[in-house]
Design goal:
Blueprint: H1 22-48, H2 57-74, H3 80-104, H4 111-128, H5 131-149
C-alpha cells in the first residue's frame, strides 16, 4: 500500500480579491493597522476608564471604527466603506473647518494635533484607496441600474412599484 502526499495549494481567492493586486491589499491592511494602532492608543484608554457621567458619543464612535478596522485587517476589500467614510469626514473637516481656521489664524488649542492627523488622512487615503475597484464596485453598478429607469433626458421612466393589496381586518401583517 502506497501513500502519496497531496499537493498543497494556496486557498482560492474571492473573485473580487483578484481585481486588486496583492501589493494593494497589503497597503490596505497597513492602513487598517494604522487606524487600529492610532485609535487604540488615543481612544481605548478613554473607553476603558471614563467617568460614569461622561457622555461618550465620540469615543464610542471611534471605538466602533476601531473594531471595524480590526475586521479590515482580515477583509481589506469588504471594509473599504470604512476607509471611504474616513476619507469623506476628514476631507469635509479639512475643507470646512481646518483650512479656514488655519488661514484665519484662529484655531482652538487642539488644532495642531487635529490638523496633522486629519490632513495626513486627506493626503494618504486617495493614494491608498483602489479607485478603479471602488468605481466598479460601488458606482458603475448604481449608474447601470439608474440607466434602466432614466430616459435620454434624465427623466425617470418605468419604475416598477410593488404590488399593494388591501389590508383586511383580522389579518396578520408584519409591515
Amino acid at each position: 500500500m502506497t501513500t502519496t502526499a497531496a499537493s498543497v495549494s494556496p486557498p482560492a481567492l474571492h473573485p473580487a480579491d483578484r481585481e486588486v493586486s496583492t501589493a494593494r491589499l497589503w497597503v490596505l491592511r497597513a492602513t487598517y493597522a494604522l487606524l487600529v494602532i492610532g485609535l487604540g492608543l488615543t481612544n481605548l484608554p478613554e473607553l476603558i476608564a471614563h467617568a460614569p457621567t461622561s457622555r461618550g458619543v465620540i469615543p464610542s464612535l471611534l471605538g466602533g471604527i476601531w473594531l471595524l478596522a480590526l475586521v479590515g485587517l482580515r477583509h481589506p476589500l469588504r471594509m473599504l466603506p470604512l476607509l471611504l467614510f474616513e476619507f469623506a469626514w476628514k476631507t469635509i473637516w479639512f475643507l470646512g473647518y481646518g483650512l479656514p481656521q488655519w488661514l484665519a489664524g484662529q484655531a482652538p488649542p487642539t488644532f495642531d494635533e487635529d490638523f496633522f492627523a486629519i490632513a495626513l488622512g486627506v493626503v494618504l487615503m486617495p493614494i491608498v484607496l483602489p479607485w478603479g475597484y471602488v468605481w466598479r464596485r460601488y458606482f458603475s453598478e448604481v449608474s447601470r441600474v439608474l440607466s434602466l429607469y432614466l430616459d435620454r433626458s434624465g427623466k425617470l421612466v418605468g419604475i416598477p412599484l410593488p404590488e399593494v393589496r388591501p389590508f383586511y381586518p383580522g389579518e396578520a401583517r408584519l409591515f
